[in-house]
Amino acid sequence: MPLCGESEGMSATMRAAVCVRAGGPEVLELRELPVPAVRDGWSLVRVHGAGLNRSELRTRQGHSPSVRFPRVLGIECVGVVAASTDPAVPEGTTVAAVMGEMGRAYDGGYAEYALLPNATLMPVATTLPWDVLAALPETYLTAQGALDALGIERGARLLIRGGTSSVGMAAAAIAAGSGVETAVTTRQASKVDALTADHVVVDAGESLGGSLREIWPDGPEYVLDLVGARTAVGSLRLVRRGGTVCVAGSLSGWLIQDFEPIAMIPSGTRLTAFHSETMKGRADVLQRIVSEVEGGVYRPNVDRVFELDEIVAAHRYMEDDQATGKLVVTLRHE
C-alpha cells in the first residue's frame, strides 16, 4: 500500500526493462542498471507501478524518430520519492508522474527507480493499492483533458470511438458522472459486455453511421475519437453539423493521409485535439480522480497486471489488442 513516509533503502543497482533497439516485444530486455544519480531539478522515485500505453508500443516499434536506443520506456509511473531535490516533494511522498518526454528523451517507468524532473511529479494522498493507482494517471488525466477540450455541457450526447481502450472507459465514466448521454464503440462484439455506457455500438465500418442514427437520428453533438488517424475523417461525418470532434488517441497511428480540411470538415463543424502533455503536473486533477476511484464513483478498469519480468508478454498482449481497459506493470522491491 502506498503510504507517505515509507522508508526507502536503495541498492547500487536496479532492474529495468530496456528497449535495446526498434522491433517486436522481444527487444525489451531485463537488465541490471546503476540506480540514477540525483541532480539539481530532478528527484529519484522508487517505482511501484507503471501503466502501459500504446505510445510506448509505437516507440518500441521505431515510430518515434526522436528516441534513441537503448532506452527504458514508460511515459508514466507511481511510487515513492527516494531522494528529493524539491522541498515541496520530500522523501517518502507518494507521487505519480506522466509525460514530460519521460521514457523518450530520458529513461521512464519500466524500472525499479526513475530519475524524473521535479515538474513532472504529482504528490497524491491515497489508500489505493499500487496496481490500481498505476492505472489512473495517464488514462484519467487524458480522458478529463479531452472532455475539457470538447467543452461538453450537461445533457449533451457524446460518441466515444475506441470505447474498450483504457482512456475510452475512463472518459465514459467521467461523462456519465457529468450528466452526459454517452455511446461507445468497439470493433469486437466479444467486448460489449465489459463496457458501461448508455449505448454500446459494434463498429463494423461503413455500418456505424446507420447504427448511430438508430440511437441519435441527428447525431451526437460531440465525438471523442481515440482511434485517431484512420477514423478522424469519418468522425467528422458522424458528428452533428456544428458539433465538435476531438482526436485524443492514436490507436491507428499518427497521421491522416491525404487530409483536405476544406473538403473534409463540414462547414461549421469543429475539429480539435488533445495531448496529455498539457495535464503534466496537474496534481489537483489527479487527486480528485483518485478520490473518486476511492469513493467508487470511477472504476480503475484494470484489465491485467504484469510483473516487470513479464514485460515482453505484456507488450505482446497489448499489441494483439487483447485488453479491455488498462494494463499495468508492478515492481516488487526486496
Automatic annotation (TrEMBL):
List residues of the Enoyl reductase (ER) domain: 23-329
Q: This protein's superkingdom?
A: Bacteria
Which InterPro entries does the record match to this protein?
Answer: ADH-like_N, ER, GroES-like_sf, NAD(P)-bd_dom_sf
Keyword NADP among record annotations? yes
Gene3D superfamilies (UniProt xref) = Medium-chain alcohol dehydrogenases, catalytic domain (3.90.180.10), NAD(P)-binding Rossmann-like Domain (3.40.50.720)
Q: List UniProt keywords, sorted A-Z.
A: NADP, Oxidoreductase
Answer yes or no on keyword Transmembrane helix: no
PANTHER family recorded: QUINONE OXIDOREDUCTASE PIG3, QUINONE OXIDOREDUCTASE PIG3-RELATED
State what protein this is by name: NADPH:quinone reductase-like Zn-dependent oxidoreductase
Please name the source species: Kribbella pratensis
